[in-house]
Amino acid sequence: MTLYFVPALMTLMLFAPLFIGIYYKKKNMLTDKLVCYLILLSGVLLRIIYISYTDVGTRQHDVHDFFEHNSGHGEYITYLFENHALPNFDPRDKFQFYHPPLHHIICALWLTAAKLLGFSPETSGVGSLQYLTVIYSSLFALFSFKTLELFDLKPRTLQLCTAIVTFHPTLIIMSGSLNNDMLSSLFGMLSLYFTSKWARERKWSSIILTAFSIGLGMFTKLSVGLLAPGVAAVFLYILIKFRKEYKKLIPQFFVFGLICVPIGMFWSIRNLIKFDVPINYVPLLSKDSGQYIDKPPMERLLNWKPFQFMSPFTQWEWSGASYNEFNPVIALWKNAMFDEQTFFKKSITLQSFCTALFVCGIILSLLSVAGFVLMWIKNKNVKLHDKILLTGVALVVFGNYINFCIHFPHVCTENMRYCVPLIFVGAAVIGMMLDSGADSRSVIYKKINDYAKKVMTVFCGLSVFVYVMMMFYYHAVEK
């Protein structure tokens, strides 16, 4: 029993929002908005539970070791902490040093603060860095909710969509990941929120905050710039729709560029001038790598044979699998739920819950595709600038992902961390589909809606269950 005392205590902590909700319900003070905030609070607690059994060396991407003076995001942070300056060498000389430095700067400042407070930067300082990523992941969920609010979703729909984002496995995993993915994803979410807000009110404050969100996002990871085409399309639409306000809008666009471009492009231009590094530089892994995918692009895209669905986990030959995961879409479905890992290796029963979660994730992704179609051909309540933004972001992000997988044919490129905006976009269009179906006279549409709501609820429940049970499994098996 002692073995499970801490996991049981932390699980009880997860029920706190439920008890709060029951209390406010009895007092007739439980509002629809409060329910959403209680969902978000549950998400924060779940992320804290996750990092309690996931240390800085577990389920990471290219972080490697800290204070080993080698390579990876960990060494990038260490370098900034020790030298108080940007790298003064060609960033291609050290693995992952080509990335823009904002996330690493913040982490280095965190270690500096830990040292000033008397903690060891090498131990407790590094160990506490995950609280930063928990904050980033929680804020992503919060601003997803605030953006969904702008779409005028019905209360029940808003709660379901908020829960999908809050409890999505990718955002749980990334809450403990110490590379720059979570912070860049947060800035991407902020850019969507402020763009949506600006399109409604066209205020200076909103477009300036949009500029800082994209600029700082690109100063964290250059791929945040993939959101720019969708944002630009909204700008163009608003300019055409409110062309009589051009004297107000043109200066706003000018200031947007004046803020966004220098911040976002500073690192790339600096490295281009000083070290002749191409602006879009990404290191290419060797074909000799054990994760190289030796299949032509068309086979990778068109091969949907059933054997690829036998396991919900990403397949690696070096881990004993019969093949390397090769279909980018199937791979995305798998690691969106479990990253690149295999969970519960010693429990077939617990793995069955993972399979159920995997199936729910596939269904939700297919529902989101249907949601996009219905949003354009049926849903007249959704504002056109919202349709443009969501569609532009989805097409560019997913298109870039497929292109990335084809040009960099390794298993590690088939990862949901390159497609995080799709989590919010997918939840949003499903929500719009639910609201549109509620007003429809079609019996089939209503049945699809009821089915979708059930899948969304089961998905959230399974996600919470799997990532809480991981804590018990870790204490019972891994230790």
What would the principal axes of the Cα set say about the shape?
globular
N to C succession of SSEs: HHHHHHHHHHHHHHHHHHH
State the domain count: 3
Number of helices: 19
Beta fraction: under 5%
Percent helix range: 55-70%
Radius of gyration: 23 Å
Oligomer: single chain
Structural class: mainly alpha
Low-confidence segments: none
Mean pLDDT: 95
Q: Mind describing the biggest β-sheet?
A: none
Total strand count, please?
0
Short recap of the structure:
It contains 19 helices and no strands. It has helices at 5-14, 16-26, 32-52, 73-83, 102-116, 121-127, 130-150, 155-166, 169-174, 181-201, 204-218, 228-241, 246-275, 297-302, 328-338, 348-377, 384-407, 421-438, 443-478.
Describe this structure in words.
By secondary structure, this protein is mainly α. It has 3 domains: 58-128, no CATH class; 141-178 and 289-479, no CATH class; 180-281, no CATH class. It has helices at 5-14, 16-26, 32-52, 73-83, 102-116, 121-127, 130-150, 155-166, 169-174, 181-201, 204-218, 228-241, 246-275, 297-302, 328-338, 348-377, 384-407, 421-438, 443-478. The longest helix is centred in the C-terminal third of the chain and has 36 residues, at 443-478. The protein is globular, with a radius of gyration of 23 Å. The mean pLDDT is 95.
